[in-house]
Write a structure and sequence with these properties.
Length: 323
C-alpha cells in the first residue's frame, strides 16, 4: 500500500469516528480546546483527548474522563470547570454557545483572553458563570440579559470595558453580581432599579457614577435581599441614601462606599440591625454624628468614615464598634 495512504488512515478513521459517534457537545468542547495554547499542568491536553477516549464514545456520549467536564443522565454536558490551572490562550466563546444544557462555566484564575460574544445569550440553561481573574476584554454584550436562569455572575478581575448593559431585570434568579476590577461604567441608580433578589453586589474599582439619593421605590427589590454591597473606588457623587431608603436595607451586613465623591450628611443607620461593616471613607461627607445615628440594636464591628468632614462626639459611637 502507498505509504501516504498508510499515513492518512488514522486521520480518516478519526474523522469518521468524529462524525459518527461524537456528540455535538463533545465536538464543541474540542473546538473550545483549540483556543487553549498554554497548559502548564497538561491536565486538559492529556485528558481532553478523543483518541484516548476512543470507542467509549459509542456507548456514552459524555466525555466523563475529561478533566472538569460533567454530564447529566442523558449524556449532555452540564458543567465545564477549569479554575486555577494557569491556562492561557484566546478563547472563542462562540464554540460552546450551542451547548444548550450547560449550567456551569467556571474558568476563574487563568490567563485566558478573548471577548464575550453576543452568542453567549443563547446558553439559556447557564446558571453559574465565573470568568474572574483572567484577561478577557471588550464590552459585556447586551445578550447577557437573556441568561434568565443565571444565579451567579462573576466577571471580576478582567479588562471588560464599556457601559454595562441594561435589561438585567430579566435575571430574576441572580443572587451574585461581581464586576469589580474592570473598566465598566453606568448609572448606579438605573442598575439598582433593575436588580431583583440579589444578595451580593460588588461594582468596586470601576467607573460607575450617579447619585444614591433615589426614590425608595426604585430600591425596594434590591434592598429587601442584598447582604453585601461594595461600590468603592468608583465615581459616585451627590447625596447618600435617604433615611427612608436606609430603612429598606434590613438584611445588609456589609456596605462599602469608600473612595467616591458622595456629599451631604449621613442618614440614620439605626434600623439596620444586621449591619457589621460600614465604610464611607474618603468622600465629601460632612456634618455631626447624632446620638441616634447608629441606634442601639446594631452589631457593627468595623466603621471607617475617615477622610471626610464629619464632626461630633466619637465616644457616642456604640462600644462594640471598632471605629
Amino acid at each position: 500500500m502507498d505509504p501516504l495512504v498508510l499515513f492518512l488512515l488514522p486521520f480518516i478513521s478519526f474523522s469518521a469516528l468524529t462524525r459518527a459517534q461524537f456528540s455535538s457537545d463533545t465536538l464543541s468542547l474540542l473546538e473550545f480546546k483549540k483556543g487553549i495554547d498554554g497548559d502548564p499542568t497538561g491536565v486538559v491536553r492529556d485528558t481532553w483527548n478523543p483518541v484516548a477516549w476512543g470507542s467509549a464514545a459509542a456507548v456514552d456520549s459524555c466525555p466523563r474522563s475529561w478533566y472538569g467536564v460533567s454530564c447529566d443522565d442523558s449524556g449532555a454536558v452540564v458543567s465545564i470547570s477549569l479554575g486555577g490551572l494557569s491556562l492561557s490562550g484566546e478563547l472563542k466563546f462562540s464554540t460552546i454557545a450551542g451547548m444548550r444544557s450547560l449550567r456551569n462555566l467556571s474558568l476563574t484564575g487563568n490567563f485566558f483572553t478573548g471577548r464575550l460574544v453576543p452568542a453567549i445569550g443563547d446558553m439559556t440553561s447557564l446558571q453559574y458563570l465565573d470568568l474572574s481573574a483572567n484577561r478577557f476584554y471588550g464590552p459585556v454584550p447586551g445578550k447577557i440579559a437573556d441568561l434568565w436562569a443565571l444565579v451567579h455572575l462573576n466577571l471580576s478581575g478582567n479588562g471588560f470595558k464599556g457601559g454595562f448593559p441594561i435589561g438585567i431585570q430579566n435575571l430574576q434568579q441572580l443572587r451574585v453580581l461581581d464586576l469589580r476590577f474592570n473598566v465598566l461604567w453606568g448609572d448606579v441608580g438605573a442598575m439598582f432599579s433593575e436588580l431583583r433578589n440579589v444578595e451580593h453586589v460588588d461594582l468596586s474599582s470601576n467607573i460607575f457614577y450617579g447619585d444614591l439619593f433615589m426614590d425608595s421605590s426604585r430600591l425596594s427589590s434590591l434592598a429587601n435581599t442584598v447582604k453585601y454591597m461594595n461600590l468603592s473606588y468608583n465615581r459616585l457623587s451627590g447625596r447618600f441614601f435617604s433615611n427612608d431608603s436606609m430603612r429598606l436595607f434590613r438584611n445588609l451586613e456589609v456596605l462599602d462606599l469608600g473612595q467616591n465623591m458622595l456629599t451631604g450628611e449621613l442618614p440614620s443607620f439605626g434600623s439596620m440591625s444586621n449591619l457589621k461593616v460600614l465604610s464611607a471613607a474618603n468622600n465629601l461627607l460632612y456634618g455631626p454624628i447624632s446620638e441616634d445615628l447608629f441606634g442601639d440594636a446594631m452589631h457593627l464591628k468595623e466603621l471607617d468614615l475617615s477622610g471626610n468632614g464629619i464632626t461630633g462626639m466619637w465616644f457616642r459611637l456604640p462600644k462594640f464598634c471598632n471605629a
